Amino acid sequence: MESSNLTSVTEFILLGLSSRPELQVHLFLLFFMIYLMILLGNLLIVLLIMMNTSLHTPMYFFLTNLSIIEVCYTTCVFPQMLRHFFTEKKSISYSCCVIQVFTFLSFGIAECYILSVMAYDRYVAIRDPLRYSVIMNRGVCVRLVTVSWMGGFVMSMAVTVVTFRLSFCRDNVINHFLCEMPALFRLSCTDTSQAELASQIICIFTLLSPVIFITFSYTHIINIVLRIRSAQGRRKAFSTCSSHLVVVILFFVTVMSLYMRPKSLYSPEKDKIITVFYVAFTPTLNPLIYSLRNKEVKIALMKLLGKTRDT
């Protein structure tokens, strides 16, 4: 019998973050505020970069794409999660679950690649500052971003196909607040070993490879910076990389702890906490990290506020 004939589930039930009714309003208010901060913070970064010609550089071009990705992949989750805080039956149709897995992974994987590109950009800026604008010209930047976005969609398509070739014919209850690959594997009524192996191979290309590339880039960056004789020069060089490095650590540590851990360590409650961290708190912190630790962004913000007051 074909596996597709076994699939009889037409919807999934999401248990959400908590089943306690008294917490639903509080959770709604908390995550509504977080979602609002994500939207306003990241869209403000995009607006500042677009309106200030001094920020029309490769680094801020990549930061614009990172902010857009943050908005997109949180929007795959938050509207549904917020609605479910006030619904008794937290259901999602099979087709919507497929769409959510695909879009969520697409933007998440694209973020992995964009963070890798940003590490390469910082490496070039510190290694060869005189030729930086020539090496990282607009055509190169556009191609790097295009490959990052397309890589996200292609890899996500592969993961989605692997996941939904499985059959779901008995239990349809997902102990999570979104459709996520590890939770779906546990619901399947067919053998998931091949699907899990395929997903791990894909994770190597989408998570481990960027981490190795970023580590390689920053190893060379640190070696170059340590050879700078003046303390002021070292501080300036490190300051251009520190914001990006903080974001990289926050993002990759949480995502890898979820998608690249042994199957024996699966825990629905811990998975929800980890997912909340990289879906909610990391995108909230990104604009703060880049604005508070970046002098150019703060100057652009002051100019925007000044213009707003004048008008």
Walk me through what this model shows.
The protein has 311 residues and is an all-alpha fold. The chain has one domain (11-310): Rhopdopsin 7-helix transmembrane proteins (Up-down Bundle), CATH 1.20.1070.10. The protein has 12 helices and 3 strands. The chain has helices at residues 3-6, 21-51, 58-75, 78-84, 94-127, 132-135, 138-164, 181-187, 193-226, 231-259, 268-292, 295-310, and strands spanning 11-14, 91-93, 173-174. Strands 2-1-3 form a 3-stranded mixed beta sheet. Helix 2 (21-51) runs parallel beside helix 11 (268-292) and helix 5 runs antiparallel to helix 7 (138-164). It is globular, with a radius of gyration of 21 Å.
Give the spatial strand order of the biggest sheet.
Answer: 2-1-3
> In which range does the helix fraction lie?
over 70%
What oligomeric state do these chains adopt? Answer: single chain
Poorly predicted ranges (pLDDT <50, ≥5 residues)?
1-6
Question: What is the CATH class?
Answer: Mainly Alpha
- The end-to-end distance, rounded to whole angstroms, is 70 Å
The total domain count is 1
Rg of Cα set? 21 Å
Instruction: Give the full name of the CATH homologous superfamily.
Output: Rhodopsin 7-helix transmembrane proteins
Class inferred from helices and paired strands: mainly alpha
CATH architecture: Up-down Bundle
Largest sheet: 3 strands, mixed
Task: Assign the CATH topology.
Answer: Rhopdopsin 7-helix transmembrane proteins
- Strand fraction band? under 5%
Shape estimate:
globular
Counting DSSP E segments of at least 2 residues, the number of strands comes to 3
Number of helices: 12
SSE succession: HEHHHEHHHEHHHHH
